[in-house]
Amino acid sequence: MKLNIDGLLVYFPYDYIYPEQYSYMLELKRTLDAKGHGVLEMPSGTGKTISLLSLIVAYQKAFPLEVTKLIYCSRTVPEIEKVVEELRKLMEFYCKQTGESNNFLALALSSRKNLCIHPEIMHANIVVYSYHYLLDPKIADLVSKELAKKSVVVFDEAHNIDNVCIDSMSVNITRRTLDRCQNNVDTLQNTISKIKETDAAKLKEEYRRLVEGLKEANVARETDVYLANPVLPDEILQEAVPGTIRTAEHFVGFLRRFMEYLKSRLRVHHVVQESTPQFLKDIFEKVCIDRKPLRFCAERLQSLLRTLEIADIADFSAVTLIANFATLVSTYSQGFTIIIEPFEDRTPTIANPVLHFSCMDPSIAIKPVFQRFQSVVITSGTLSPLDIYPRILDFRPVTMASFTMTLARTCLCPLIVGRGNDQVALSSKFETREDFAVIRNYGNLLLEMSAIVPDGIVAFFTSYMYMENIVASWYEQGILENIQRNKLIFIETPDAAETSMALEKYQEACENGRGAILLSVARGKVSEGIDFVHHFGRAVIMFGVPYVYTQSRILKARLEYLRDHFQIRENDFLTFDAMRHAAQCVGRAIRGKTDYGLMIFADKRYARADKRGKLPRWIQEHISDGSLNLTVDEAIQLSKHFLRQMAQPFRQEDQLGLSLLTLEQLESEEVLQKIAKIAHQT
Amino acid sequence: MASLSEEVLLVVKKVRQRKQDGTLYLMAERIAWGPEGKDRFTVSHLYADIRCQKISPDGKAKIQLQLILHTGESTTFHFSNESSALKDRDAAKELLQQLLPKFKKKANKELEEKNRMLQEDPVLFQLYKDLVVSQVISADEFWANRLGDMNNSDPTPYNNKQDVGISGAFLADIRPQTDGCNGLRYNLTADIIESIFRTYPAVKQKYGENVPHNLTEKEFWTRFFQSHYFHRDRINTGTQDIFSECAKQDEKGLKSMVVQGVKNPLVDLLSLEDKTLDEGYGVSTTTPSTSNANRTVKESSNAAIIKRFNHHSAMVLAAGSRKGETPTDQASETSSTDGNSRDSDFFQPPVRLQEAIEYEDLQRENRLKTVALNLKKSDRYAHGPVPLQSQHYTTSQDIINSVNHIRHEMVNYKPNLTQVLSSTAASSAITALSPGGVLMMTGTQQAINQMIPTEVQGELKHLYAAAGELLRHFWSCFPVNSPFLEEKLTGHLEEMLQTAYSKFHVWQTRRMLRKT
Q1: Where along chain B do its domains lie?
Q2: Residue B157: which pLDDT band, with cuts at 50, 70 and 90?
Q3: Is residue A655 part of a domain?
Q4: Is residue A666 assigned to a domain?
Q5: What is the residue-averaged pLDDT of chain A?
Q6: For A315, which of A90, A126, A202, A541 is 20 to 30 Å away at the CA?
Q7: Which GO biological process annotations does it have (chain A) (predicted)?
Q8: Distance between CA atoms of A162 and A139, rounded to whole angstroms?
Q9: Does residue B25 contact residue B33 with C-beta atoms inside 8 Å?
């Protein structure tokens, strides 16, 4: 159908539309009109992607000078492939409606299949790729540097974007890294001496270039051709490479000295934590390495590798890592911390020193993106509470909205199970984690659910260790045996290949009617990337609140940083983080309005307002006061009732006018008023 | 009975049956027993009729063998030869063990089916007792229309037969019982053994290799239950039991499954992320090392349990979809030990990309319109009938008063035949006054329930069901279009109805008598 979104003609490749899609497009258009950034939360399965694509493509067609390109970033390969498929559908619809042939170029990039050469990116109207291509400075420099300023950037599934940012800027150095680095440096040394004999002019030419400085890059950035690289800060572009590392040999010598220093730092017997200025001070005192040459390390190494015409850069990953670390550590005096741990906490007898250089400020990596592109849209099914994202990513959105799912029938049933049948409080909190009674009641919950829920059940635990212990305990108590009478059991393991196999078998068992249970962990790959549509997930059980492991020093440092710089309290952040993962887990089961599923929160702490309030609105509004502290039996009764109702036929007519609109309905004033209420502005 | 041409496989003397000495004969198709000094068999069972055999536990004074028939009857033989009783019994048992499965295959599928139906459906069983056992109708007739579907609509039932899968919990069903002297006893049935073999072909292979040359059957299973293999939480510490190889084989199978990878790209976690961070980057790249050296015994045992559960479920699933493989299919064994049934290759991941992005409700429906079930009260459908709650409460005094009042009126009631109700009004009044009617809502059902002893209710129900069944037979004869039906109708059906009626009558009078 053809829609009129606030005066914009939008081709929408379906006969009907969900009210929230219409509302979403309105908000999106407002964002684009204002040339600002937006944060939009809309439940999965309400056609977010097609709404985004339809509107932005229409916008591009209508205002080709205002928006030249759409950069669509998603997280997983299947997600990217889905986007491409939806785009294809949209383009076909355009062709059919307008009768014109398609003059839109869209490109999808993924490392395995079709790595695209970047001139093509310049010309494409739409680019679809993974987050890393834009956020990881190491790749962004190669792929995304020249993207036009007048692009719209969409980060889909963006609920974890802060972690992606932090990961892309953090470095870990072990003894092994340094050993490999040593080999790299040796190879560099040899190559240099060989080249010196055969082609000394080449090295001289490089030297000349370096005296000229990084002018070229600077010109590009000033004329706004390039996306800034957060690793390569502005200031150094105006300077020439310092003399101490200008010749190739000097630079290699410099790298050696730096490496030796790092080696000495790894010879510690207790944990050391320091700030970047402290680190720089120490390195100056110990080995007389100045801050300035360190900052040029990454760029200088790239230049050397180019000059030496080394084809396989991958072999030099270790030395590149060290050089990147040198540049980062000397560039940012804030937002990073250095932690040196002599051994793993679990194995204090085995020496395994690691230097963690951790980014604590996600805004550093994403800053160039917000600065460069006129509109950046952050969207996901679970982004609650919305206001925290602009805070931790340090940007000012022009629109922030959370959309509910309009439903003709309540197809999700969130229940908070706080007690066992014996009134024992259920919780995964540390004090009761080993409590036999809690584990038994959890087992009982799963057992009872396995008897009443058809096909597939997915259960998530707070961590892998926790799951292992519970599974062992359930095995000893014979609970798993009893569950096996109802369904087959599959369990996630740390091995991705093994888990994939288990997943496939799980689906097979759901498919052939036998029914299965998948035991999995929050924050794991399954919880982040696998959808359990329809009968693949009729119930999700979240055992406990998935708090992150709080004893980690890196996390503690990050929490302190958040408190000091963003005024976010530790507990608020931890709860926010736990709840977004819980929401991700339970949201796996509902993938559309024709889908249905139970969402069981098995921990009494979910009932508290500070937890519950952080769930996405579309889940929160279906938690009734009566289902805040249920016993296992009560939950089973409610579930039975829910499942029976859902099993009744559900037809399109039931939805029409309520959660599904025709074009005519969309034109009525009354409906438009209703739609206005869907977007919940914050 | 005993034809001379019958091949006798085993003769065991000094076998007592019902305290009578005699000789046991195992023949090609049946087992028979004849008392000493007589040349005819007083006991004879076709192997096909035998459901299973049971033996007395070792150490019991009496050495016995019991045969249980499909009909539920059983015959017990007591081996009384002092010197060789145990040997005799085992010889008979072994031979039966080989023979019975062959006949089980051949055994009347129908019989099994009937048996199953009767076991699963208590009402049908009662009906069977009422009609067949009391000889109102013959068993054949009873089954004629019940099994009709099975036989008629499906001319080649064997080919289209759906394989029965394996219960996921079959291992759990082997509940060990203490035998009272520091030991455990496991009860194995043929079904469980088959389940084990189908799920774990490696065990079957071991069985084939070791039994009976190296181990007796009993020893084999004893070792099985003692093995690390059976107890999933124990890690294999390298003890050399015969099952350690099975564990290795399982491990190998699991590995090969993992190496094969998954066909559905949407569940492939390995290729989920487009770009994982290079080594050395990221916050949490130092995942706790999973090398065995660093793991505690408990942790590795936990990991072992998890692995075994995944493997078990995969094997059960594979065994369920493994078609057309008879348990004795030797050639297929090696190929199926890895748990990847060939059939699972045909399993197509349903969520293809196209489907994954499809919003079926956003598209105009163009499939066939179907008639939807129109439920006025879907709640009642979901929950079954709920007793109506009376809204108005009447005191017992009110009730007594009104009853007295009505009684009083009835005593003085004189029918005024010239002014009777119209037939419609009368029938509606009857409806209203019948149980379930508008005027009889409150408590009537309960009153009937309470008034009549459950025993009587039960008997009445049986009679009702039996009569209903007969009537079903009666009506199924119409239209009478074959001589057989005509014969049935005019001949014994009438008789049957008569019998049923008299049966009811007998019951009624008996009840009446008892009451008064």
Answers
A1: 8-107, 110-151, 177-260, 450-514
A2: very low
A3: no
A4: yes
A5: 88
A6: A202
A7: DNA repair; hair cell differentiation; positive regulation of mitotic recombination; transcription by RNA polymerase II
A8: 18
A9: yes
Are B364 and A554 within 8 A, CB to CB?
A: no
Q: Which of A319, A405, A501, A518 to mutate to test the interface with B (most CBs of B within 10 A)?
A: A501
Instruction: Tell me: do A208 and A242 sit in the same domain.
Output: yes
With 0-12 CB in 10 A as exposed, 13-18 as middle and 19+ as buried, what is B218?
A: exposed
**Range of A599's domain?**
412-649
Do the Cβ atoms of A487 and A516 come closer than 8 Å? yes
Residue A572 and residue A510 in one domain: yes
> What are the structure tokens assigned to A115, written together?
């790595």
Same domain, A644 and A676: no
* Strand segments (E) across A255-326: 272-274
The amino acid present at B116, given as its one-letter code, is: R
From CA B500, how far away is CA B479, in angstroms rounded? 23
Same domain, A294 and A395: no
Instruction: Tell me, yes or no, whether A221 lies in a domain.
Output: yes
Strand A336-343 to A351-359 pairing? antiparallel
- Cα torsion A614, A615, A617, A619 to 10°: value is -160
Q: Which two tokens stand for residue B399?
A: 């009730």
Q: Are residues A459 and A582 in the same domain?
A: yes
- pLDDT by residue (tens digit) across B61-119? 788 888 888 777 888 888 888 888 888 888 888 888 888 777 766 555 667 677 777 77
Q: What is the DSSP string of A346-393?
A: T-TTSEEEEEEEEE--THHHHHHHHHH-SEEEEEES---STTHHHHHH
Closest CA to B280 of A135, A297, A171: A171
Shared-domain flag, residues A422 and A495: yes
Question: Spelled out in words, what is the top-level CATH class assigned to the domain B8-107?
Answer: mainly beta
Residue B169 with chain A: CB contacts under 8 Å:
481-482, 484-485
DSSP 8-state class, residue B279: T
Distances (CA, A) of B417 to A647, B412, B413: 57, 15, 12
Residue type, position A436, single letter: F
B residues 309-338 lying closer than 8 A (beta carbon) to A: 309-310, 313-314, 316-317, 320-321
| pLDDT tens-digit series, residues B464-488 | 888 888 888 778 777 777 777 777 7
As a whole-number percent, the residues of chain A with pLDDT over 70 amount to 93
Residues A141-171: b if buried by 16+ CB within 10 A, e if exposed: bebbbebbebbbbbbbbbbbbbebbbbbbbb
Cβ contact, residue pair B274, A317, below 8 Å: no
Whether chain A has a CB inside 8 Å of the CB on B163: the answer is no
Smallest CA–CA separation between B379 and chain A, in Å?
8
Is A518 in a helix, a strand, or coil? strand
Closest CA to B120 of B100, B146, B138: B146
Q: Which two tokens stand for residue A564?
A: 């000091």
Q: Is residue B282 within 8 angstroms of chain A, CB to CB? A: yes
Examine the domain organization and report whether A298 and A383 are in the same domain: no
Q: Which of A310-319, A355-364, A616-625, B107-116 has the lowest mean pLDDT?
A: B107-116
CB A72 within 8 A of CB A126: yes
- Considering the domain architecture, whether residues A96 and A20 belong to the same structural domain is answered as yes
B294–chain A Cβ distance below 8 A for any pair: yes
pLDDT at B336: 40
**A523 in contact with chain B, both atoms CB, cutoff 8 A:** no
Does residue A654 sit within a domain?
no
DSSP strand E in B181-292: where? 184-185
Lowest average pLDDT, out of A636-650, B137-151, B295-309, goes to B137-151
CA dist B239 and B251 (Å) reads 17
Verify whether the Cβ–Cβ distance A16 to B362 is below 8 Å. Answer: yes
Once rounded to an integer, what is the mean pLDDT over residues A30-55?
Answer: 93
In chain B, whose CA is at the least distance from the CA of A344?
A: B288
Query: Quick one: pLDDT at residue A500?
Result: 92
CATH number at residue A417: 3.40.50.300
Checking if the pLDDT of B156 tops 50, the result is no
Q: Please list the residues that pair with A39 across neighbouring strands.
A: A378, A400
Can you tell me the distance from the alpha carbon of A423 to that of A345, in angstroms, rounded to the nearest whole number?
36
